[in-house]
Amino acid sequence: MSSNTFGKLLSVTTFGESHGPAIGCVVDGCPPGLELAAEEFAHDLQRRATGKSRHTSARREADEVEILSGVYEGRTTGTPIALLVRNTDARSKDYADIAAQFRPGHADYSYWQKYGIRDPRGGGRSSARETTMRVAAAVIAKKWLQQRHGVSVRGFLAQIGEVKPGGFDWSAVEDNPFFWPHAPQVPELESYMDALRKSGDSVGARVTVVADGVPPGWGEPIYGKLDGELASALMSINAVKGVEIGDGFDVVAQKGTHHRDLIAPDGFASNHAGGILGGISTGQQVVASIALKPTSSLRLPGPTVDVNGNPVEVVTTGRHDPCVGIRATPIAEAMVALVLMDQALRHRAQCGDVGTITPRIPAGPGLGEAE
Amino acid sequence: MSSNTFGKLLSVTTFGESHGPAIGCVVDGCPPGLELAAEEFAHDLQRRATGKSRHTSARREADEVEILSGVYEGRTTGTPIALLVRNTDARSKDYADIAAQFRPGHADYSYWQKYGIRDPRGGGRSSARETTMRVAAAVIAKKWLQQRHGVSVRGFLAQIGEVKPGGFDWSAVEDNPFFWPHAPQVPELESYMDALRKSGDSVGARVTVVADGVPPGWGEPIYGKLDGELASALMSINAVKGVEIGDGFDVVAQKGTHHRDLIAPDGFASNHAGGILGGISTGQQVVASIALKPTSSLRLPGPTVDVNGNPVEVVTTGRHDPCVGIRATPIAEAMVALVLMDQALRHRAQCGDVGTITPRIPAGPGLGEAE
Amino acid sequence: MSSNTFGKLLSVTTFGESHGPAIGCVVDGCPPGLELAAEEFAHDLQRRATGKSRHTSARREADEVEILSGVYEGRTTGTPIALLVRNTDARSKDYADIAAQFRPGHADYSYWQKYGIRDPRGGGRSSARETTMRVAAAVIAKKWLQQRHGVSVRGFLAQIGEVKPGGFDWSAVEDNPFFWPHAPQVPELESYMDALRKSGDSVGARVTVVADGVPPGWGEPIYGKLDGELASALMSINAVKGVEIGDGFDVVAQKGTHHRDLIAPDGFASNHAGGILGGISTGQQVVASIALKPTSSLRLPGPTVDVNGNPVEVVTTGRHDPCVGIRATPIAEAMVALVLMDQALRHRAQCGDVGTITPRIPAGPGLGEAE
Amino acid sequence: MSSNTFGKLLSVTTFGESHGPAIGCVVDGCPPGLELAAEEFAHDLQRRATGKSRHTSARREADEVEILSGVYEGRTTGTPIALLVRNTDARSKDYADIAAQFRPGHADYSYWQKYGIRDPRGGGRSSARETTMRVAAAVIAKKWLQQRHGVSVRGFLAQIGEVKPGGFDWSAVEDNPFFWPHAPQVPELESYMDALRKSGDSVGARVTVVADGVPPGWGEPIYGKLDGELASALMSINAVKGVEIGDGFDVVAQKGTHHRDLIAPDGFASNHAGGILGGISTGQQVVASIALKPTSSLRLPGPTVDVNGNPVEVVTTGRHDPCVGIRATPIAEAMVALVLMDQALRHRAQCGDVGTITPRIPAGPGLGEAE
Predict the structure, then answer these.
(1) Packed helices B328-351 and A108-115: angle between N→C axes, nearest 10 degrees
(2) Which residues in chain D are contacts of A137 at CB distance < 8 A?
(3) What are the extents of the domains in chain B?
(4) pTM
(5) Considering only CB atoms, which chain D residues are within 8 Å of B353?
(6) For residue B108, how many other CB atoms are within 10 A of its CB?
(7) pLDDT at residue D249 is higher than 60
(8) pLDDT of C174 higher than 80
(9) Is some CB atom of chain C closer than 8 A to the CB atom of A9?
């Protein structure tokens, strides 16, 4: 399969560079009959967009989605759905200075070594601009998951630098520019980001995504495990350096008696596993977290080499996010939703449409919800 | 692609259950002409095997590999290499009691919900016995990587419970049953494991794998990224709940000025990135770590339900590892080696056989080596 | 996907050489719960086997199938089903003379050019021995198709050399060693083959496969079309040089008014299309035919070159079929059945389990059945 | 892999409906550094286009290709190349009458049965309009094959109805609107087509494609055979009902002594095999032929049913080709070129960049060239 395509039955192929004429995607394998209109993409694309607050890059893209195919009279036909977004606010001249240099911590050098040619404008293909189309594609997946299975996929910013949420409330997440789950901390975060931006430095972040309503049985052992596919899907997001399912790296220090989620007829007692055992969903909340590195595009100078191998000092002057994790929440949600829909179709293929296997154990307590 | 196959050009299909007649794999896409003999599998299979020390499961398998195809007069022919290992020490009666119960923290319930049928003997397909064939397949990958590119893949146990290495020396790793990189701590670990085994409980662990000599340019953006594929390959190992590349989750609290690996003509100054930028290798050490949960197969009883939905108390009496992480080092190495070889072939397909792109920056300091 | 694997959701990976220790396959993606026993493979493997009549190769293989995995207490579990057949009657010394020569019309030269190494014993991987495992895998597909959808897949020999059937009766096909649909011609065919065998020459053949009961809707446009996948599956059979769907090459001289299959509420009026339109089944009989070349392994000498490029005269003394088409009927059925089951699962994935779309047009007249 | 994508390493994903806003494709896996400009697509798209002579559909499309990604400063970068063509001459009202009817011989009924919804305008996704993008994608493949390996791919119309070429001259093929290889017959064909068009009927055709310069060794046994992949690629073209390699169905009546292509140090003596043995190229011309059915969109009425199952009489009034085979030559070339480039990359992946295996036998006589 092509390396710009992911998903086995619901497959998404993305294309486009940061400063090229357009970015787009082809979503193939969507069941027929789903209602779909161009307006439906706006909400999640706006959640992902730059330029909405002073805490993200100043680039302002309309991100208007044109549906090129696969929809007839407002419903999907089962044929490939092509989505197109024109780039309108690219400032390629910002990159003229660094076209012949390799920014430390960027894909500049590795792309160059692989291909012997690279599009330096805005990072070209390696830019997070590409994630626009993941979010667009996932609008379809989220809708289908909700309509067909009652599954919802939500995310939040779980840490930024050293700052962790002091409380948790889903209803707060969409009411601040950080997707932060604890409203009282928002002013603190605003100050934190302002200071960071002024310093010219950047910082890392942690994002958590939760899927509610996933029925037991999704996921294909051994190499198509639900957690395995979440791992590659999430790791493919720009700047991600780690992926956790459930308790993640905390399990290293746990005892088995603590970790195992006990089962009772009225529900699981806990969810250390993050809703996945043996690569297959258990019916509990599916919980995944990612670590995003601090962006390497800094105003602060640093030593590097140019394409001739000479040492130079590089300064990045383009428009960049001081914390790429801030906008990563809808992107991470998108990848989780796309993986889930793909697995749902794969499960239906092998095991049939409707699960009727007993006993079915209730999910038990969910993250941030009344227990 | 089938869910029991991984790899795009070097593909590995595994089959077999823990207590079935045999386990095996088919390795397809291997270049022709590689010398290969059945004896070469013994070393890594013994590193992975149970029953060698009191700290792992007591099951003793000969793990004798039969080469069924793909090798002629001692060399690979380019056709699929099938490897077979007969199961010889299965004690299925240990599982009679739990055949109708769902062990908390195990794949029992999720397999049952997916398929409506499961082989309870030794965990069936969900058993870590399957990883034997990953290790066998990777013997081929390790050899090819070494011969063709001078790449070596090594791992070690980086944490067990709360215990972290107090020092680091590659030469210590293979001289103790834990793959522990600091010899003076081995007695402490022995005591720790003895106490744990007596308690009937289990504990988690962390394993790190390092690949030296990986040239820059391996990895396919966007959805075939080297780190993305490492993530799914490693997450597919039994009990893994988290994957990190380079600094992993530590990046959450890092600043960009700290994280970015500065570049000089005589080498990278650091390797926070773990040797991968934009999904493509940089020529530095490739570093990946995993978190392994404490096994859920405990002698200590716990509440669960049976297949009729009735509450029961379960006790696992089969032979199990109190810390599955101990034997995970060769398995994690295997997955890294298989991903690397696959990516090497993919890179050759698109970009040609020999990298000659300049400038090529030296790797810089490696983990645990003189800087 | 590996080149020794086919099928997207029901995937079959085969391995093994003609004179290696064993041949085998891994069938992945089979729905759970299907009853399956080792004895069920015998019937179709015997239909394909050599050594049953004087008209095929004298090699006598037991073709005993061992189920290595994927079946528990007589039912499939949804995990990969590995099947193994040991080679028992290989006479490799027959090939010593030709190990360093390229037989004209054989894969000897092309394998050598690709890999620089080849297993000359019995043709190695290029031998039709490999098709044993396709037939074995298809036993599972045929059973599932019959049980789940009432689909049956049958084939017959439609031409041998210049001889065409003088009549058609399904009930005759299994009562002669040629799968010939017209009993009165069997003595003529016996004489024809006896004379051919004495002459040392070989002859081509045509085989037709018919699938009854295929519901409308199977097949994925554009590049996963049912006819497209039948074409590659059938072309992959040894010696096949052509594939036709329905009227096949006869359409070149047809007019549209003749070719189009008119539709009436009580059924299609004809089936020139072979049951497939736009790559999707129509509910009519699916009809595919293949052309098999005369085998190139002849006792009659012919000029060629050796591995040093010197001209030599080659004579093939091993045991060979004077008409490989005779045994090709069960092999062609196998490939059709495997493609159909794969497409059935793919259709279920995207479009759901049960077709309820109206109007559904009856199939109309079938090949060789009362109209 | 998605069903609208083909190719393993050079993969092409197409999207778009006949009367939708646009059609397009994403070409992934192309080696970096290939020069590519939008103008280069015009030549082959014009060869495929309708509306150039009275013998094809009257629809006139500009078929202007926009390169959306993957090319920087005139060279491919190794990232996905997206190509877009806007539809400009769609007349959807022509289809209002037949939107609720199933045209006999068309994909109308089968799409309806699969999806329960279909875009009737111009045939929607099942229209040959889609092949525009195959031809566009293949412009890249043809160029790379020529530059890198000196491979050329050419086709011609080998039969139309009962009319066969009375001679053969490559230089004639591009000088008439039929791709006919024998100039003196062109007036006869003009009259034939005029009469056919007046009658309201249509006719079938045969197209042959020849690839010169293919080195030995391309093709992957067993299920990725070069001929197997040519078969599915060619069968996926609209209206194709049969595929032949080399002598194709003529082999049924051939003897082995006739069919086998004898080998001498100075070249193969003949090419009955069509340049492929055991699924791998031999270094001879690769020759493939297809049968195209007469289009079913006729002005002449015929009985069918409507979406309510009632019998109706259908008349197709849209713009259609009386012989779809006339424009199929560049489409068939495209599919052959795309398969060859994909196999070239796959061969390089497994077996290395440069073939140096001896002895290499010259190709011998080519079709229509001096022997």
Answers:
(1) 60
(2) none
(3) 5-351
(4) 0.97
(5) 348, 352-354
(6) 27
(7) yes
(8) yes
(9) yes
Q: What is the four-CA torsion angle of C268, A78, A85, A288, rounded to 10 degrees? A: -170
CA distance B117 to C77: 6
B349 contact D CB<8A = yes
What is the pLDDT, as a whole number, of residue D371?
Answer: 45
Distance CA B347, CA B345 (A): 5
Distance from CA of B309 to the nearest CA of C (A): 21
- Cα C49 to chain centroid, rounded: 13
Cα B361 from chain centroid?
Answer: 29
Cα end-to-end span (Å), chain A: 44
The answer regarding whether domain B5-351 maps to CATH 3.40.50.80 reads no
Phi (first) and psi of residue B210, to 5 degrees: -125, 130
- C262 touching A (Cβ < 8 Å): no
CB contact under 8 A, C130 and D229: no
- What's the full length of chain A, in residues? 371
What's the CATH number for C93-351?
Answer: 3.60.150.10
As for the ipTM of the complex, it is 0.97
How far apart are the C-alpha atoms of C221 and D124, rounded to whole Å?
Answer: 12
Which segments of chain A does DSSP mark as H helices, in order?
Answer: 42-48, 108-115, 131-149, 170-173, 186-199, 226-235, 256-259, 328-351
Please give the pLDDT value at position B57.
Answer: 81
Residue in chain C nearest B8 by alpha carbon:
C1
C350 to A221: CB separation less than 8 angstroms, yes or no: no
Cα gap A110→A124, rounded to integer Å: 13
Instruction: Tell me the shortest Cα–Cα distance from C35 to chain A, in angstroms.
Output: 15
The pLDDT, as a whole number, for residue C1 is 58
Structure token digits, residue B245? 């590349």
C-proximal residues of B, 74-103, CB under 8 Å: 75, 77-82, 84
Task: State the smallest CA–CA distance between residue C350 and chain A in angstroms.
Answer: 5
Six token digits for residue D302: 């015929």
C29 in A contact zone (CB under 8 Å) = yes
CA distance A341 to chain B (A): 16
Q: Annotation-wise, does B191 bind a ligand?
A: no
Which stretch of C214-223, D286-295, D316-325 has the lowest confidence by average pLDDT? D316-325
DSSP-assigned letters across all residues of D296-344: S--SS-EEEEBTTS-EEEE---S---S-GGGGHHHHHHHHHHHHHHHHH
| pLDDT above 70 as % of chain B | 98
- C104 vs C313: CA distance, rounded Å: 10
Question: Hey, of B193, B222, B299, B308, which one would you mutate to test binding to chain A, going by the most A CBs within 10 A of its CB?
Answer: B222
C195 touches chain D (CB under 8 A): no
| Residues 285 through 314 of chain B touching chain A, CB cutoff 8 Å | 291-296, 298, 300, 302-305, 307-311
What is the Cβ-side half-sphere exposure of residue D16, based on CA atoms within 13 angstroms? 25
Residue C73, min C-alpha distance to chain D (Å): 32
Tell me how far apart the alpha carbons of residues B1 and B186 are, in angstroms, rounded to a whole number.
Answer: 43
Which CA distances in Å does D290 have to C271, D47, D105, D351? 20, 18, 18, 31
* Distance from C-alpha of C323 to C-alpha of D252, rounded to nearest angstrom: 10
Residues of B in contact with A274 (CB under 8 A): 241
Q: Where are the beta strands (DSSP E) in chain C?
A: 5-6, 11-16, 22-28, 66-67, 71-72, 75-76, 81-86, 152-160, 205-212, 240-245, 263-264, 267-268, 276-277, 280-281, 286-292, 302-305, 311-314
Let me know: does D123 contact D105? Beta carbons within 8 Å.
Answer: no
pLDDT digits (tens, 9 = 90+) for A62-83: 899 999 999 999 999 999 999 9
What would the pLDDT profile of B250-275 be if each residue is shown by its tens digit? 999 999 999 999 999 999 999 999 99
Cβ neighbours for C47, distance < 8 A, ≥ 6 positions apart = C135, C174, C329, C330
CB contacts < 8 Å between A and B, how many? Answer: 393
